[in-house]
Amino acid sequence: MIWIARIAAVLVGLFSLAMGAMMILSPAETAEGLGLGALSPIGLNALRADIGAFFLASALASGLALFGGRPHWLLGAAALYGLAFLGRLVGIAVDGAPEGIATPLVVEFTMVVLAVFAARTLSRS
TM spans, by residue (predicted)? Predict the structure, then answer.
Protein backbone atom coordinates (compact mmCIF):
# COMPACT_ATOMS: atom_id res chain seq x y z
CA MET A 1 0.00 0.00 0.00
CA ILE A 2 2.95 2.31 0.67
CA TRP A 3 4.11 2.01 -2.94
CA ILE A 4 0.65 2.82 -4.24
CA ALA A 5 0.60 5.92 -2.01
CA ARG A 6 4.03 6.96 -3.27
CA ILE A 7 2.90 6.51 -6.87
CA ALA A 8 -0.19 8.63 -6.10
CA ALA A 9 2.01 11.38 -4.66
CA VAL A 10 4.33 11.19 -7.68
CA LEU A 11 1.36 11.53 -10.04
CA VAL A 12 0.12 14.63 -8.22
CA GLY A 13 3.63 16.07 -8.22
CA LEU A 14 4.43 15.34 -11.86
CA PHE A 15 1.09 16.64 -13.13
CA SER A 16 1.48 19.80 -11.06
CA LEU A 17 5.10 20.29 -12.12
CA ALA A 18 4.25 19.82 -15.79
CA MET A 19 1.35 22.27 -15.66
CA GLY A 20 3.40 24.79 -13.67
CA ALA A 21 6.34 24.56 -16.06
CA MET A 22 4.10 24.97 -19.10
CA MET A 23 2.44 28.00 -17.53
CA ILE A 24 5.80 29.60 -16.72
CA LEU A 25 7.42 28.82 -20.09
CA SER A 26 4.48 29.30 -22.48
CA PRO A 27 1.67 31.01 -20.58
CA ALA A 28 -0.38 32.19 -23.57
CA GLU A 29 -0.62 28.76 -25.17
CA THR A 30 -1.19 26.92 -21.88
CA ALA A 31 -3.80 29.43 -20.75
CA GLU A 32 -5.63 29.12 -24.06
CA GLY A 33 -5.89 25.37 -23.46
CA LEU A 34 -7.49 26.17 -20.10
CA GLY A 35 -9.95 28.61 -21.63
CA LEU A 36 -8.05 31.67 -20.38
CA GLY A 37 -6.44 34.55 -22.19
CA ALA A 38 -4.29 37.58 -21.48
CA LEU A 39 -5.65 40.95 -22.57
CA SER A 40 -2.38 42.80 -21.96
CA PRO A 41 1.25 42.18 -20.99
CA ILE A 42 0.33 42.48 -17.30
CA GLY A 43 -2.36 39.86 -17.88
CA LEU A 44 0.20 37.53 -19.42
CA ASN A 45 2.43 38.14 -16.42
CA ALA A 46 -0.48 37.38 -14.07
CA LEU A 47 -1.17 34.10 -15.86
CA ARG A 48 2.47 33.11 -15.55
CA ALA A 49 2.74 34.13 -11.90
CA ASP A 50 -0.67 33.29 -10.43
CA ILE A 51 -1.62 30.12 -12.29
CA GLY A 52 2.00 28.95 -12.42
CA ALA A 53 2.30 29.44 -8.66
CA PHE A 54 -0.85 27.37 -8.06
CA PHE A 55 0.60 24.38 -9.87
CA LEU A 56 4.17 24.80 -8.65
CA ALA A 57 3.00 25.06 -5.03
CA SER A 58 1.24 21.73 -5.47
CA ALA A 59 4.38 20.23 -7.01
CA LEU A 60 6.49 21.57 -4.14
CA ALA A 61 4.09 20.14 -1.56
CA SER A 62 4.23 16.75 -3.27
CA GLY A 63 8.01 16.84 -3.42
CA LEU A 64 8.34 17.75 0.26
CA ALA A 65 5.96 14.95 1.12
CA LEU A 66 7.90 12.37 -0.88
CA PHE A 67 11.50 13.41 -0.40
CA GLY A 68 11.32 15.40 2.82
CA GLY A 69 9.42 12.83 4.85
CA ARG A 70 6.50 15.20 5.43
CA PRO A 71 3.41 13.43 4.06
CA HIS A 72 1.08 16.04 5.59
CA TRP A 73 2.34 18.51 2.96
CA LEU A 74 0.22 16.63 0.43
CA LEU A 75 -2.81 18.07 2.20
CA GLY A 76 -1.70 21.48 0.89
CA ALA A 77 -1.90 20.18 -2.67
CA ALA A 78 -5.26 18.60 -1.86
CA ALA A 79 -6.51 21.92 -0.49
CA LEU A 80 -5.46 23.83 -3.61
CA TYR A 81 -7.12 21.38 -5.99
CA GLY A 82 -10.14 21.06 -3.69
CA LEU A 83 -10.66 24.82 -3.64
CA ALA A 84 -10.35 24.93 -7.42
CA PHE A 85 -12.97 22.15 -7.62
CA LEU A 86 -15.32 24.08 -5.31
CA GLY A 87 -14.77 27.26 -7.33
CA ARG A 88 -15.85 25.40 -10.45
CA LEU A 89 -18.99 24.16 -8.68
CA VAL A 90 -19.82 27.74 -7.68
CA GLY A 91 -19.27 28.81 -11.29
CA ILE A 92 -21.63 26.09 -12.50
CA ALA A 93 -24.26 27.13 -9.96
CA VAL A 94 -24.00 30.82 -10.86
CA ASP A 95 -23.27 30.76 -14.59
CA GLY A 96 -24.34 27.31 -15.73
CA ALA A 97 -22.15 24.47 -16.93
CA PRO A 98 -19.90 25.52 -19.80
CA GLU A 99 -18.87 23.09 -22.49
CA GLY A 100 -15.84 21.06 -21.43
CA ILE A 101 -16.26 21.57 -17.67
CA ALA A 102 -16.25 17.82 -16.93
CA THR A 103 -12.55 17.37 -17.68
CA PRO A 104 -11.18 19.91 -15.17
CA LEU A 105 -13.68 18.72 -12.55
CA VAL A 106 -12.51 15.12 -12.95
CA VAL A 107 -8.83 16.13 -12.92
CA GLU A 108 -9.18 18.28 -9.79
CA PHE A 109 -11.26 15.70 -7.94
CA THR A 110 -8.73 13.01 -8.87
CA MET A 111 -5.85 15.15 -7.60
CA VAL A 112 -7.66 15.65 -4.28
CA VAL A 113 -8.32 11.93 -3.88
CA LEU A 114 -4.74 10.97 -4.78
CA ALA A 115 -3.20 13.58 -2.49
CA VAL A 116 -5.40 12.76 0.52
CA PHE A 117 -4.91 9.02 0.03
CA ALA A 118 -1.13 9.44 -0.21
CA ALA A 119 -0.97 11.78 2.80
CA ARG A 120 -2.99 9.45 5.02
CA THR A 121 -1.23 6.28 3.92
CA LEU A 122 2.30 7.70 4.09
CA SER A 123 1.59 9.24 7.51
CA ARG A 124 0.89 5.79 8.91
CA SER A 125 4.11 4.25 7.64
Answer: 46-67, 74-94, 100-119
